[in-house]
Design goal:
Strand content: 25-35%
Radius of gyration: 24 Å
Shape: elongated
């Protein structure tokens, strides 16, 4: 069939031809993407249990190399669409109200897709 095999100028097959059907390519891509997601989830599982700072750093570097970024939003404005509140710290400074004081559990995003929201402690204006 001509739609997956290109003829060269001499009537023979070109060196770059493959005998892979387009539907097989889709299946292979889907499998590769599913495998990638499974490996990312395994790395997150390992990160949560790692006791060594060096191991955590190496896993985060490896994930970052494939587009998975660690999220530690310390100092950013709390956004319930991107952050999960784990606690609050009272403050008398109105400028700190609603600002992330500390990341309790690191979050992760795969490019623009949130995999896990970071759990954060947020400054809250002290009622006087």
């Amino acid at each position: 069939m001509a739609w997956f095999r290109k003829e060269g100028t001499d009537g023979g097959s070109s060196a770059s031809d493959t005998d892979v059907h387009p539907l097989q390519q889709v299946t292979d891509l889907e499998r590769a993407l599913a495998d990638r997601q499974a490996l990312i989830q395994m790395c997150l599982y390992a990160l949560d249990r790692a006791r060594s700072g060096g191991v955590v750093e190496r896993l985060e570097e490896g994930l970052a190399a494939i587009g998975v970024q660690a999220l530690r939003p310390d100092g950013e404005r709390f956004d319930p669409a991107r952050h999960e509140a784990g606690g609050a710290v009272p403050t008398e400074d109105p400028a700190l109200d609603g600002i992330v004081a500390e990341t309790e559990v690191t979050g992760f995003a795969d490019h623009d897709r949130l995999l896990r929201a970071p759990i954060v402690t947020v400054y809250a204006k002290k009622n006087t």
